């Protein structure tokens, strides 16, 4: 029992330190946008190309995450595209950034691939659910310390 409690404390400290690592890389005046795609069997071999204001900023593999940090006050428009077929795109999420805020965006595929009737979902999450999902290692293939951080002016 004593060993279990010790292991639990070490694991909790490990996750707290990792979370602080990302927090320290994001200035308190920056806006942080956390974008993620859960592990799923459906369309698992397909990447979602994330675009910010119509410019590609990165691709999300199945079960991966990315962080965007910026200090802009301009509206940000996020869309997702199938990296193999750019005709297949998502709706958009518009963020009106406020200094120091955190925003969460979830992406996924839905539809029937074999009939070529599928689409990409991209939608905003509230900060409580978004943070809970973004930091849950069971939902992702990547490790927390492998998350890419992009800086957008």
Fold and architecture overview:
The longest helix has 24 residues, at 2-25. The protein has a single domain, classed as Immunoglobulin-like. Strands 8-7-1-4-9 form a five-stranded mixed β-sheet, covered by helices on one side. It has a four-stranded antiparallel β-sheet with strand order 3-2-5-6, with no helix packed on it. Strand 7 (102-112) and strand 8 form a beta hairpin. Residues 5-21 have low confidence and may be disordered. The relative contact order is 0.23. It has 153 residues and is an alpha+beta fold. It has helices at 2-25, 127-134; strands spanning 31-37, 48-52, 55-60, 64-70, 76-82, 89-95, 102-112, 117-125, 148-152.
Please name the defining characteristics of this protein:
153 residues; alpha+beta; Immunoglobulin-like; 5-stranded mixed β-sheet; 4-stranded antiparallel β-sheet; 9 strands; 21% helix; 42% strand
What's this, in brief?
The chain has helices spanning 2-25, 127-134; strands at residues 31-37, 48-52, 55-60, 64-70, 76-82, 89-95, 102-112, 117-125, 148-152.
Uncertain segments are 5-21
Number of helices: 2
Q: What is the first-to-last residue Cα distance?
A: 51 Å
Strand order of the largest sheet: 8-7-1-4-9
The fold-level CATH name is Immunoglobulin-like
Order of helices and strands: HEEEEEEEEHE
Please give the largest β-sheet: 5 strands, mixed
Based on CA atoms alone, the radius of gyration comes out at: 17 Å
Average pLDDT taken over every residue = 75
Question: How many domain units?
Answer: 1
Q: What is the CATH architecture descriptor?
A: Sandwich
What is the helix fraction of residues, given as a range? Answer: 10-25%
The oligomeric status of these chains comes to single chain
Strand tally: 9
Q: From the helix content, strand content and strand pairing, which structural class follows?
A: alpha+beta
């Amino acid at each position: 029992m004593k060993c279990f409690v010790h292991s639990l404390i070490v694991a909790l400290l490990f996750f707290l330190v990792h979370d602080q690592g990302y927090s320290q890389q994001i200035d308190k005046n920056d806006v942080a946008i956390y974008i993620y795609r859960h592990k799923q069997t459906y369309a698992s071999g397909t990447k979602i190309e994330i675009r910010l204001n119509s410019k590609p900023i990165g691709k999300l593999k199945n079960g991966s995450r990315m962080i965007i940090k910026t200090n802009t006050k301009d509206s940000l428009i996020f869309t997702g595209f199938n990296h193999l077929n750019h005709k297949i795109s998502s709706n958009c999420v518009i963020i009106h950034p406020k200094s120091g805020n955190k925003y969460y965006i979830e992406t996924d595929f839905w539809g029937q691939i074999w009939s070529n009737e599928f689409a990409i979902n991209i939608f905003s999450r509230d900060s409580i659910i978004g943070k809970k999902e973004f930091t849950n290692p069971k939902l992702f293939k990547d490790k927390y310390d492998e998350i890419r951080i992009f800086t957008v002016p």
